[in-house]
Every structure is written in structure tokens, then in C-alpha cells.
Amino acid sequence: xxxxxxxxxxxxxxxxxxxxxxxxxxxxxxxxxxxxxxxxxxxxxxxxxxxxxxxxxxxxxxxxxxxxxxxxxxxxxxxxxxxxxxxxxxxxxxxxxxxxxxxxxxxxxxxxxxxxxxxxxxxxxxxxxxxxxxxxxxxxxxxxxxxxxxxxxxxxxxxxxxxxxxxxxxxxxxxxxxxxxxxxxxxxxxxxxxxxxxxxxxxxxxxxxxxxxxxxxxxxxxxxxxxxxxxxxxxxx
Length: 237
Ligand code: MG
Description:
Elements: H1 2-16, E1 49-52, E2 60-61, E3 67-69, E4 72-74, E5 81-87, E6 90-97, E7 112-116, E8 120-124, E9 159-166, E10 169-170, E11 176-178, E12 181-186, E13 189-196, E14 216-220, E15 228-236
Antiparallel strand pairs: 1-15, 2-5, 3-4, 4-15, 5-14, 6-9, 6-15, 7-8, 7-14, 9-12, 10-11, 12-13
The protein binds magnesium ion.
Residues 111-113, 121, 123-124, 221, 223 line the site of magnesium ion (MG).
């Protein structure tokens, strides 16, 4: 009886103070994570590549047709822009604003888009009290997946996309080995959660994969609406 009580007491103590426990060690050898300065709220962190931060669109092909003022770039209907550098797996931060003056409806209102690898579009649209097909509204993977929620701000207000993208992989015989995956936070709210991208996101064709390099340029769409952009940065993963 006495022994039982002593053992019980010891068990109670060891639950609080792990006197008789051995620390678990995974045995895995990790290298120390590099230090990254987070920078101001909204970034860019110290290891990011800034694609739009200052006065110009020098990081982009086609930027001459956009107007840049105080770090804000606006599409002018003269065509989209394509980054000079190529990217594969990445973390991407984009700030955008639909025109304050509402002039159209549906897909004609604040339409633009972030094309990962120039092929896979995260839709930009003024989806504030603006109905359209659900997989074509803001933060939708165009014609594949609506956002989980509609968290669009009012026209004219600045909005954020934070995108985590895993590029697709193709094997030596040009067959798809692994599809692309995408996670999107719109204004800090999760709207795409590790979605498996089905292929390219065309308006007039279903999704399909065609072999391409591991890295390709990023593209911002000009859909004829003066959508504004600022503070675009990317981290290669
Ligand atoms: Mg678009």
C-alpha cells in the first residue's frame, strides 16, 4: 500500500519535473536558418527581389507603356508587363488597387491579373459588390477555383496579395511529374489553401500542362482597366 502511494507520488512529481525522462532528440542535423531582416510592415524582407518599389518599371519588359508616379505603376491599356528575371518556387507580395471610379461591371471592372510563370493567373478584379463567375472573381485561380471567401476592399483602396507558389515539375520525357500548388492570402485572409493548379488559365480553353522550364518570368495583365500596383517583391524559395 505504502509502495503504491510512493510510486504514485513519484509519478505525479515526474509529470511536473521530468526527472526520469530523457529528452527526445531527432538526430537530424540542421544548418542554422539564415537571418532575414523582415523590413517594414509589408516588406520587402532583406532577401527579397524588389520588382516594383521605387520610381520605375526597370525590372519589367513593357513597362514603358505604364505610368509610374511615387512608386505606383498604372496600366494604360498598352499591354501587360513581364519581369526581366525568371522565377519558379516563390513567395510573392503584390499590392494593387482597382480604379476608384466604377465604370463597368463583371469582368470589365478593375480587371488585371498576376500570372505566375506567365501561365497561371491569380485574378485581380474589383470584386467589391460586383458579381461575376465565381472562379473569375478577385483571388480566384482563373477558371479553376474561386477564392474561399470574398475579402475584396472597396474600389480605389489598396489591397494585398501574398502568394506562395510551387512550380510544376516535368520529367525528362516532358511529362508532368508534379503539378503546381498555390496558396494565396488576400488582404491577409487565406483565400487559396495549397490549391493544386490544373494547368494554364486561359479564357477560351480548359486547363492544360505543357512542359516548360523550372523558372519563367512573372506577368502582370493589362486588361484595359487602369489598375494600380505598388510594392511588389518576391523571394525565391
Ligand atoms: Mg484578369
